[in-house]
Amino acid sequence: MTVFRGYLLIIKRNWGFIFIYTALFLLTMLIIQGETQKKEEKEFQRSRLKIAVVDEDGGILAEGLTNYLATLHEITEIGNAEGTLLEAIYYGEISSVIRIPRGVGEKWEVQLTKIPGYAESDYLKQQINLFLNQVQFCTENGYSMQEAFALVNQQLEEKSVRLLNLNGNQGKWESYYYIFRFLPYLSIAVLCLILSIPMNAYRKKEIRQRLQCSAVSLRRQTVEAMLAFLVVGIIFWAAMIGVAIIFSKNSFFESPHAAYLAGNSFLMVLTSLAMAFLIGAVAESENVINIIVNVTALAVSFLGGVFTPTSVLDKGILKFSRILPVYWYEEVNNLLAGFREITPERQSEIWKSFGIQCLFAAACISIGMAVLKIKEQKED
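The structure assignment produced for this chain is given below.
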């Protein structure tokens, strides 16, 4: 097992790199998990804006509108001076200024000054228009102003919001899905680097000549190299499954998609091994390997939906992303995270993604072997 032990010895020298990448990965997962838990809301709540109201009318309608807005938003008292109000908007102390002009009961209109492009202020304007239209309708049909206020304010009573659990996952992801979401970047960055370097070392002319003179046949060298790749890949995959179990507090075993998640991640690891083989065949030095691995890991992760959702990508970029295995890996992960029940249609999508990942891995190995063959012919 000369070649096999040689691979492991070279890989052992890179334990520091593996530790740093894994530690950063786990730290990122802890941050994401903590932020996700903070954002989970148990019930629906209206968004309250900081606003200022300038009452130039002083009538009963202006008072009713001010009270109405006070129940929905936070009214800040900062005076009526135009400069002061604009300065407050500029520095973000308030988002809008509602100016109620004299005779508001005649035109039923108010003036709204807001931050340009601030969408929440448009929602505020709709609320004001709704209040004025409803009060006007009530007063024109025989109700007094106070009665109209009472009818409009009845609609502000808190209503219970019922969330339908259509997908069976309570509308949220389990913590271990975030582990699997970022797995492609870590697997490509770590496996491609630690395996491409020993492969590149064994490709050096002096090493190859020594091995040719030894009792180790070329076939056995290839088998031992492949065995080293598989052993490292399986250890890495098992470690990531262990991390997912620890982060999920054993809820991973209760998931109906545990087998799919394990299979999808294992195919991603195999794809990373194939990419490591190709990089090791193409690169001529460790410096080149470092550059290729870093650029490749980041590029395929961004294009494949690891760091950014594929929904925000341009259509042209998305077409290119579809040839990447990371894209199909993330498609499976998102599908499993979003749906508790796997229908036959969804199952066919999963197997399709598995097949594309396998084809990409086979293509990398084939291209890598062709490159090695061409280089050997040139050197001989």
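Interim note for the steering committee: The CA atoms of residues 143 and 150 lie 10 Å apart. The longest strand covers residues 50-55.
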